[in-house]
Amino acid sequence: MDTPTAKVAWNANYGVVSSGDRRLAFSRQLSSNATANTPRLARSDSSITMPMPPLYQGPKPSRKLLRLATASRPMRRLALLLALNVAYSATELAIGLFTGRVGLVSDAFHLTFGCGLLTFSLFAMAASRTKPDNMYTYGYKRLEVLAAFTNAVFLLFLSFSLAVEALHAFMQDESEHKHYLIVSAVTNLSVNLLGVWFFRSYARVNIVYRNAEDMNYHSVCLHVLADSIRSAGLILASWFLSLGIENAEVLCLGIVSVAVFMLVLPLFKAAGNILLQIAPGNVPPSAFAKCSRQITACEDVSEVWQGRFWELVPGQAVGSLSIRVKSGADDQAVLEYAHGLYQDLGIQDLTVQTDES
Amino acid sequence: MESHHSSHPQIAEVKMDIASSASGAAGNKVCRGAACDFSDSSNTSKDAKERSASMRKLIIAVILCIIFMTVEVVGGIKANSLAILTDAAHLLSDVAAFAISLFSLWAAGWEATPQQSYGFFRIEILGALVSIQLIWLLAGILVYEAIVRLINESGEVQGSLMFAVSAFGLFVNIIMAVMLGHDHGHGHGHGHGHGHSHDHSHGDSDDDHSHHEEQEQGHVHRHEHSHGSSITVTTVNHHNHPSTGQHHDVEESLLKHEDGCEGTQSAAKAAKKPRRNINVHSAYLHVLGDSIQSVGVMIGGAVIWYKPEWKIIDLICTLIFSVVVLFTTIRMLRNILEVLMESTPREIDATRLERGLCEMEGVVAVHELHIWAITVGKVLLACHVTIAREADADQILDKVIGYIKTEYNISHVTIQIERE
Predict the structure, then answer these.
(1) What is the tens place of the pLDDT at every residue in B50-77?
(2) Which of A234, A349, B79, B103 could, after both became Cys, cross-link A318 (CB 3.0–4.6 A)?
(3) B262 in a domain, yes or no?
(4) pLDDT tens for residues A64-89?
(5) How many other C-beta atoms lie within 10 A of the C-beta of residue B279?
(6) Domain of B321?
(7) Of B2, B148, B393, which is closest to A105 when you measure between CB atoms?
(8) Omega before A51 cis (within 30°)?
(9) With an 8 Å Cβ cutoff, is A339 touching chain B?
């Protein structure tokens, strides 16, 4: 895990972190020079300390949730967005119920699901700061990836449901397009555009993820973007209908559905891959092969096998490796060498098992 | 990574040397196969069997579902009733859930690649997660429909039709629930059974070599531990092979002689505490949720039928039953979340393990202990062990791995030995 000195981490955003400026997001990640001086086999702060293991306490964020929820700028923005959305959907639901308009109620439901998702994202942002403990030895950072994945899955559901709606409109063949929905669509659009503005640096389809928060912010941004596309589609559809264009609703809904799908797919794949324990994305496979060749080239080593690497969150890779060492050789030196090699690749958490042949 | 994957298609010869010198406490400290128990093709026979049995069940369920759905669609179009068509749409969602489960089951069997060094077992978990999210989505949709029913003051909601349709839906769902929950040993929600790894079924040919194999120790156990060279008595074992004496083999895997014993094997499998596949379980939850909601809709329909003015009861009923459905999914969701967060599986007591390790002689300290699961049955462990300067690293490594394997049944272990 992070040794104390490694906390002074190399800043992936080159010091412009507060503005969230990600124009440099595609630059190559340098090898972690900042960690070059750390002892390779540092006895790090294990979460399971002996002889008195800490009592397992569940994640604490619920107690200080409000304080945490405003802890960082993106979180504050998300909290604001969430509050706006909740207020808006509550009013829409109330109005829909009182006036008996189904369209408003269905829109309110869409929004409620969205609010639920955003709440989960916010919770993930807050909870991921919790220190690793007995049960969660790797910490809580994965929550962010999970929140991103959940967002992506629901956005995919949204795109399917829009496609179903388009089909429905196609089969019904009458424009039961209710004009009072325009007001709600415009309001929805403006709220969501505000959200896109807040997270504007993440408003792209393919992003290089440097750390766990990136994925979460990206998913939130895509969520509000998809919602705004949907509202824009509805507005456009009713405008076309008023112009007398046939099948405008079908067309617009279809385009929106396809657009949302294409928007979300890369995030879905990336988040899914991390959850599937894929090998670290920023390290090319040839680099792993090269490392293992270098280790095998040592005189003391007879073979290397079972190298498994995976990413806990983007930017933090974990691995395990087995080395067979010739008998009588100094295994500690081999250990240090192996650790050094992999640290250059950016893999800090490595467990190396040395067997003597 | 490609290099050493390709150089280890056959690991058997490496094992020979070690077997003779090992203390016998653990058998091998090395795993068989380059990708070990996770994606070695020979060991997936047990996995594959479980998987194909589950797939068979799901396919039957899908076919049944589709049949019923077409019946409902035809009936709905003929009767021109929206209610029946809506119910057909719910059955369609069932089919979607089954499709997700089937896909996850099939995909989990893919061979590991250098990019996915642990294999694709996680896909099961992700598929189950998507399935559960679908359940939540559908519960929300149902509540929405109830609200719409409430708003539609036009009174075209016929209680009798609602009742009949949902009764039919309930009947269908119950049939499928029975079929999916077939080997329902005791209580559901035990996605994670014992937390031991089922992956050591070795192909028949390997058993002929007289070397230590990594048997699943205590595989059918409750509390039996096999230490050293003793022979484990398993609670359910239809063939206790007497020849184990000379091998030091600790326990014969039930699957050792798969060639001949299909029948007894499946009986044995059913006799022990059945660990239902997580995807079948999530499909079962889906169907269960649907039946619960059908009951709710039936009650609402009956109320509307009886007293059309009390429409609000329909909504309340739906809300209550939706909440019930969400509660049934909570336990599975918690399991899934724990696996995805790489947390220590519940059935393993990490502190006791660490204490046990520290008590071994030669071991000074243990740190960076990580225990996590790939999927509900397969657990891995990695830690750093600091030993005294003059201790014998190899011997301690053996002891540690043996201890972990016998006590906790974690077979995939990576231990880094450091000297003070």
Answers:
(1) 888 888 888 988 998 898 889 888 887 8
(2) A349
(3) no
(4) 556 666 678 888 888 898 999 999 99
(5) 29
(6) 40-182+276-341
(7) B148
(8) yes
(9) no
